Amino acid sequence: MSARRTDKQGRTGGGRIDRQKTVRFTFDGVSYSGHPGDTLASAMLANGVTLLGRSFKYHRPRGLLSAGVDEPNALVTILRGEAREPNIPATMVEIHDGLTVVSQNRSPSLAWDFHALNQLGGKLLAAGFYYKTFMGPAIGPLKGTRFWMFCEHFIRRAAGLGRAGTVAENIRYERMNAFCDVLVVGSGPAGLTAARAASDNGANVILAELDPHFGGSANWSGEEIDMKPAADWAEAIVDELRGRQNVRLLPRTTVWGYYDGNTLAAIERVSDRKQAPAKGEPRHRYWTIRARKVVLATGALERPLVFPGNDRPGVMLADAGRRYASEFGVLPGERIALFTNNDSAYRAALALKNAGAQIAAIVDVRAEPSEAVRALAQAAGAELLAGHAVIGTEGGKALSSVTVQRFDADGKRLSGATRAIQADCLLMSGGWSPVIHLASQAGAKPEWDSAKQAFLPPAPTQGWLGAGAFTGSFSTTGAIAEGHAAGVLAAGGKSAPFDLPGVQPEPLDPDPAPVFEIRAEGKSFVDFQHDVTADDVRLAHREGFVSVEHLKRYTTLGMATDQGKSSNVPGLAIMADALGKPIPEVGTTRFRPPFSAVSIGSIAGERYGDIKPDRLTPIHDWHVEHGATLYSAGLWHRPQIYGLPGETVEQAYVREVKASRSTAGIVDVSTLGKIAVQGPDAAEFLDRVYTNLFSTLPVGKARYGLMLREDGLAFDDGTTWRLGANDFLMTTTTANAGKVMQHLEYFLDVIWPELRVTVTSVTDQWAGAAIGGPKAREILASCVEGTAVDNAALPFMGIVHGKIAGVPVMICRLSFSGEMAFEVYCGSGFGTHVWQALIEAGKPFGLVPYGLEALGTMRIEKGHVTGAEIDGRTTARDLHLDWMLSKKKPFIGSAMMDREGLAEPTRLQLVGIVALDNRPLNGGAHIVEELDQDNPHGSIGHVTACCYSPMLGKYIALALVKGGSALLGTRAFVSDPLRKRFGPVEIVSNHFFDPEGSRMHG
Amino acid sequence: MADKLGTPDVEIERQSPLGPVFQPGSHGNLEAGAGVALSEVQPDSIVQLAAWPGEEKKLIAAIAAATGLSLPDGAGGGVAKGGKAAFGVAPGKFMAVSEDDDLAVAFADAVPVEMGTVTDLSHGRTVIRIEGSRAEWVLSKLFAIDFSPTAFPTGSARSTVHHEIFAQIQRSDAEQFDLYVFRSFARSFWKVLCHAAEEVGYVVK
Hints:
The complex is a heterodimer of chains A (1002) and B (205).
Chain A: E1 4-5, E2 23-27, E3 30-34, H1 40-46, E4 53-54, E5 61-62, E6 75-80, E7 83-89, E8 99-102, H2 129-133, H3 145-158, E9 173-185, H4 189-200, E10 205-208, E11 224-225, E12 228-229, H5 230-242, E13 247-250, E14 253-259, E15 263-269, E16 284-296, E17 300-302, E18 315-317, H6 318-328, E19 330-331, E20 335-340, H7 344-355, E21 358-364, H8 371-379, E22 383-386, E23 388-394, E24 401-408, E25 413-422, E26 425-429, E27 432-434, H9 437-441, E28 447-449, E29 454-456, E30 464-466, H10 476-490, E31 503-504, E32 525-527, E33 532-533, H11 534-542, H12 548-555, H13 568-579, H14 583-586, H15 600-604, H16 620-625, E34 628-633, E35 636-642, H17 649-662, E36 664-668, E37 673-678, H18 682-689, E38 702-708, E39 714-724, E40 727-732, H19 737-751, E41 758-761, E42 766-772, H20 776-783, E43 784-785, E44 799-804, E45 807-812, E46 821-827, H21 831-842, E47 847-849, H22 852-862, H23 900-903, E48 908-915, E49 926-928, E50 939-949, E51 954-962, E52 971-976, E53 981-988, H24 998-1001
Parallel strand pairs in A: 2-8, 9-10, 9-16, 10-13, 16-30, 18-26, 20-21, 20-26, 21-22, 36-47
Antiparallel strand pairs in A: 1-19, 2-3, 4-5, 6-7, 6-8, 11-12, 11-31, 14-15, 15-16, 17-27, 23-24, 24-25, 28-29, 32-33, 34-35, 36-42, 37-40, 37-41, 38-39, 39-40, 42-46, 43-44, 44-45, 45-46, 48-51, 48-53, 49-50, 49-52, 50-51, 52-53
Helix pairs in contact in A: 4-5, 4-10, 6-7, 7-8, 11-13, 17-22, 20-21
Chain B: E1 25-27, E2 36-41, E3 45-51, H1 56-67, E4 78-81, E5 84-90, E6 93-98, H2 103-110, E7 116-120, E8 125-131, H3 135-142, E9 157-162, E10 165-173, E11 176-182, H4 186-197, E12 202-204
Parallel strand pairs in B: 2-12
Antiparallel strand pairs in B: 1-12, 2-8, 3-6, 3-7, 4-5, 5-6, 8-11, 9-10, 10-11
Helix pairs in contact in B: 1-2
């Protein structure tokens, strides 16, 4: 006797499966077959396999509890090539050819699990086990948390879920944004009717269903709606909706998060059901749905009853048993017993009888079931044991019989003799819990309904409406009426007369008896997935954990991957009983996203392996073709060196610097931040944002400027060019371009909205090449048309316009390298054209292209600062830029820059460092007064930038040193314990090379 | 208006920033034909115009005089026809686009400093066009804005962002969008767009 596929076909005998086709898959290396439409759970049941997992702590054998998203037991790992995905409920896996599944949390095999011995130490592993056991002794080698760390290794092996993979998946995930008037979550009779009504009223509708098929309970209820089988009724509506322009149907889509502003998150399992996705098709698609209104029609989940042995394979929820028979044509057993506290299980019994099972007995805790259900029991051919309860289950890894005893539901007392009933399957029903997770996430506080024995959503608090079992309306008629009303209301439509379709058979009494647990000898599971028993809940109570939040954390009830879908309410009821309080006074925990597990890949989306975009200069391809090694500078890719074969980085930049200082060098400076500052108040604005004056700058000239933050610390520096009376081109450091732009926009928008100034990022408008060195002017003179470039036409900081190789250019004479240098700007689309013309023109003069290393070396030699020194902690004075602080006007930061702490003579100040042992220095190395390699301490500063200086023939660096200005000419040491670099240095001026600037001024 | 340098000698072509990633032909899943076509539009003029508060209507009139395109009042409105386009990108800020290369010069005279500013972005922005029945679907993968025709009618435009990449998007026809991105990001963005379009199949032309 075991589970098997039914002989019956059609709507009520497996509406989801196609019996004409066969699908082959493997489970733990064994080949099985099923039909298209089967879940892994239904296919395994059809093959007579009921043992699908081992429990979390005790490694007890477990089978299926449910048929849907609430499954706590049958978690499996799916293998895709080398990649593995653990903890997937077998009920949510659609089988396909080639599907490879393995069980988890067992060794060596599912049938024979060594760790099942854990059960014998059951008392030891009770609630709070970790907290109690692993505090560790107060003294000794394993004191405190060390003991925990020692034990953790063994515990992790014994307890837990599946193992995550370590191999990267070659598979796509994707993000999708959607907007709609009405999002309907759930496609049972309530959701379908709501979607249709909203669409009828002109709304754009998205209907999301977590199962592959729309229709929800209509697919397995066996009811007739509008004189048709419910499944046909549902299918007709789906067909109608499919043809509408304003409806988008999303099957296999779980709406798992409800966030502020009616923003919802959903995951669509696009291609899991296929052997391989189509080209470009993602595996999962993460939907961000912004909905004007949401209709929550998420239904209800059946609750288990808590009694000894309720976790044995073969014991499952009554509605799940009915689903397996109706949707998949699978009988969960040949001889089935039912155990219930409410009417709904009777319909399940009849459905299974009709599908071909023998119904051994219906055990009802209620003393006097209604006439209606007595008739159903009779029709099912079942012995009705009213006023009885199941107190135990027998069998090894599969159920063989259940033990029943007389039970008084009011006094919760067992009495009389026990009796065994042979059964290979026990279906239980402990009542129904509306799926209120999304409403709870949206901020709604659940309300206890003592008649329905369930937490119901309150009146809508946000942009959502509820319909159907979600609201506690457990009848199909009620669901259809509420769905229609919610759809109309959500669409902003007017209620029109609506012909409520007839539903047969008549609904039964939805209210269960308030019985959650049968207290008898043996382990009675509340949270199947985390192995939390009823005794654990009571233990937590005895140990003082009276708050429901503490109960949850102490026992871990409801904290597994199923987030307590089946266990929260029974757990709470047992706690309330222990406290002697009614359930509403004990309270409940709120739900948070996600509703069910979400793949990390879908959250990462397309960013996998391509985290940031590349920002490329207009001359990028030329650099690559000419052997540049590229270096990341923020998002930009910049040439580091143009190395010759066999050269080290240092050899390459030393060669580039020597050439630049003896003949000429050229560097791509297109990455500099460039901001057009325009308008009649542009000059006034710049006077306010820079520490120095710009209103006095003549048109056709540039000036070096320094900006402070409001707190008086240095912010950014660069040159700004006056191109017209009301027209400036500001340049910023590459790294700070975005921040400076935000800074300027903030002041214009918020502080000085009266200034008529436009700021626009024009970084990408211009390609820039800086050409410098003793031969730079000659090279330019040989290729520029339309303007002279001599001292008279182009003095230091002057700007001229001309053409190079037919392209209009703007040339500014300014210098970062300390050489006579020019920045040549042209439209980016002509960048490479102009660059190549400059390279050609420079050939007779020995012009070399140079990269960031050489650029950095030349600026260190000159003692110029960059972001390494303007690090958000330094002031203008620290960097010897106090000469730029105008005394004629206020500017951003001027009010704060003279604070005591910012004028301290002992602050970190910019100095030069020369290595006295002729060895390279490291950025970030500390400067100390006395060297102590064994106990490095006493830092007085740190290195910010370092290089080998070809001009000085020494390893030099810039550093920020406490009171550094007063230490020039003294000795100190570098102390870099991480890289084991220690040695003597001399502190010198930061202006290493040509301090008078004679080369630059020519 | 100063940062317009004048025109280059006629035979010099502007370099596309897309380089090797621009691969003409059909790509992706073509089982149902190509869902979208991708191309780089290369207008010679892209000009940003900004009006001081209260001067917006005059600027809209100046745009109409210079381009013949009548913009609706208010941010986000736009027009695209005959190789020209204009659209609002922020309160008082507009883009004007033309196949001719003299737009910045024309506006320099038409927009005095009391009215607003003219900023030439002809080289600074790259225009990528996506057209076809699945254009909305593909763009919805990248941008959190509503591309449906009711929310985003033909001619109108939106300023938005795909992670680090700023984009101004104009619906230039019923099934056609022009995306203005920073030139330095254009190659990366093109790759992202092609990747997103693979599912529906795409043609590069």
